[in-house]
Amino acid sequence: MLKAWQVGHIRYHLKSGRSQRWIAHHARVARGTVFAIARREHKAERQLRAQTAALAALELPDLNQPPRRCPTCRALVYMPCLACSILRSEGLTRLLAAQKKRKR
After folding, report:
1. 80 CB-near residues (< 8 Å, 6+ apart)
2. How many helices (H) and strands (E) does the chain have?
3. What is the pTM of this model?
């Protein structure tokens, strides 16, 4: 699995006009991997797009309001609670329910 910086490095060279064969040789990856990154079909590309979409879907807290207690995790936070939002987006609602029961 390539690291994000390696994918970025390969993308940089693709944009600068280097051949895929040259990039594959210098990055020490298979030519098929460079080809997949060029077509945005590489596994790392798909994961990056999924992470970006998940972050865009998160509702950011309003720092202009005073902090309040989160009704789910009972932490003192700026609403909406970012930790609970992340857990909800990851599909970990059962964990949230268990936390809520423990706090009572």
Report:
1. 59, 61
2. 6, 2
3. 0.45
